[in-house]
Amino acid sequence: MKFLDGMWMVKKGFDVRYAANVYQAKIEPKKLTLYCPYGWPIHEAGQTVDGGIMTIEITSPRPDIITTRLINYRRDRSHCPAFHLNTTDPDVAIDEDDQGWTFTSGRLTLKVDKGDFPSFKYFYDGKVITSTGFRAKGLVTDPQGQVFMSDQMDLAVGEKIYGLGERFTSFVKNGQSVDIWNADGGTDTDQAYKNIPFYLSNRNYGLFVDSPDEVSFEVGSERVTRVQFSVPGQEMTYSVIGGTDLKSVLNTYTDLTGKPPLVPDWSFGLWLSTSFTTDYDEKTVMEFVDGMAQRDIPLSVFHFDCRWMKELEWSNFVWDSDKFPDPEGMLAKLHDRGLKVCVWINPYIGQKSPLFDEGAAKGYFIKKTDGQVWQWDKWQAGMAIVDFTNPEATAWYQGKLRHLMDQGVDCFKTDFGERIPTEGVVFHDGSDPHIMHNYYSYLYNKAVYDLVAQVKGADQAILFARSATVGCQRFPVHWGGDCWSNYPSMAESLRAGLSFGMSGFGYWSHDIAGFEDKPTPDLYKRWTQFGLLSSHSRYHGSREYKVPWLYGDEAVDVAREFTKLKLKLVPYLKKMAMETHETGLPMMRAMVLEFQNDPTCEDIDTQYMLGDDILVAPIFSEDGSARFYVPDAGGDQSGKPWTNLLTHKSYDPGRWYEETYDYHTLPVLVRPGTDPLAV
């Protein structure tokens, strides 16, 4: 949210009151509270009347994390959803001297000056990593009278900001305005399905705003030397997380918000979808499955998208009997072929669905303030939305899915969950509707993931999810949403996946060859290479089937070659998944995450590391040209060449390369001293 008019003035209609100085302080066991008047510094009691005070509470939920809570008026927040955090009771040290106060947790220390408009400086191992300075902490009122709490972190020279969820904009977030608000906007806008109020800085710290509400970030986009962040309401809580490097910061952040679990081994194989609005029945499905087998393309999962149910009845969770007269028999056939089965679902219930009357009668849907079911016509005519704050509604929804699993379904694609109403609605548990908008994705995906874990066992639990908020890394896997079938969309999808990985999520996928439109055979083959060198791989589309033989004989060859390559890499991928589970590091890593000491890697978003040892540079052009950078492996392998896994050509580190590749090769380089195929 922008509220300034240049450096000194405020936009018309806005009012901003800044915390001026620390007039009083209170030290308690493991808590430092500062009382800061607004406006101008107060130095004697006569100045304390007729003015407000910002209360600043400083605590620590875990070692190396310092949490700051800014309070204008205290409010009862029992009606507000909250992220599930794994807090401990760390030892902290709080001291006061003539200069100010210090608060230390682990190796992270916050120092607060006693002067006017004091600075708040964060030190890790004695080195300054970030700070807030003059007129940073403020109470903002907009032209409509809405109140916001705001703060600003200083941006150092050369500092770069990453993360904030799966964002399709530039990988480095400097200069961007980012609103943390889940939206179904496709992949070529600044909207995002998965918004995470957490960013990483190349100065080895992270900042997490602990609010499911619409957090607004101005990353050097209003004050160019600051990251400004604000939250609606009378309070805001945020944490600074320190570390020795970006990896350790991510580890600590996911200690707090949740580690990604392990995923079943079979999930690393190829997933094939019916696509979205394509016409299909059991005969079509079996032709696809048998066609892959006949062409020697190993298949792991078959996915049924929307039209396994009757149109206008999404969702009813009942197989369309005209197309699938014997679903149990069909699913058994697929299992006999060694496949797992995934089906598409969402939390929306169209009025024509047989489940609508049942859910409405039992009060299982989000309601309007007058007690009627909230409905609209976007997506499905007269659709309602399941209210997962109602435990009975959650159990009812899970029961419908349990029946599908009894029939033979193994997992679910949890689509949608972003367009959740905020005005004129009430939730069963009284949650603030505005704050529920993003948080809904957590309740939705948790309900489905928990059911799969109950039925199949925790080691077999997996989703294919689109929406997310903080903590949804516990319910993998997520895919990138609706992208176009062209090279810019392929590149923006990769940027988003890398940002997502910098936001605490371990696994990520995307629609191979794009979702919208029909891809060219060229794009199909290039995206196949990229897709099968991602943590999870799925062919999917909107109005077009994505079986490879529709795109030519060479597309079949490419699909076969890269599917088999990925299967050879499964032991390596399992090893990397264990690292993801234990540390929170993504399987697909931005170059800066793996090679933070190489400045060249700070901006690269067209290549990535697949785990520790494999560098992948997808090809984004019809002429097959690739431009990629080879970093120095460091350690005892410093200066040694990397080797292409497919061509065995060597590449010296520390320089860029430009080469042209056919459809059977691309830059897939192995770190010196390693052999991912021998794990």
Automatic annotation (TrEMBL):
CDD domains named in the record: GH31_N, GH31_xylosidase_YicI
Superkingdom to which the source organism belongs: Bacteria
EC number(s) reported in the record: 3.2.1.177
Glycosyl hydrolase family 31 C-terminal domain location: 584-674
Stretches assigned to the Glycoside hydrolase family 31 N-terminal domain: 55-218
NCBIfam families in alphabetical order: PRK10658.1
Protein family: Belongs to the glycosyl hydrolase 31 family.
Name of the molecule in the record: Alpha-xylosidase
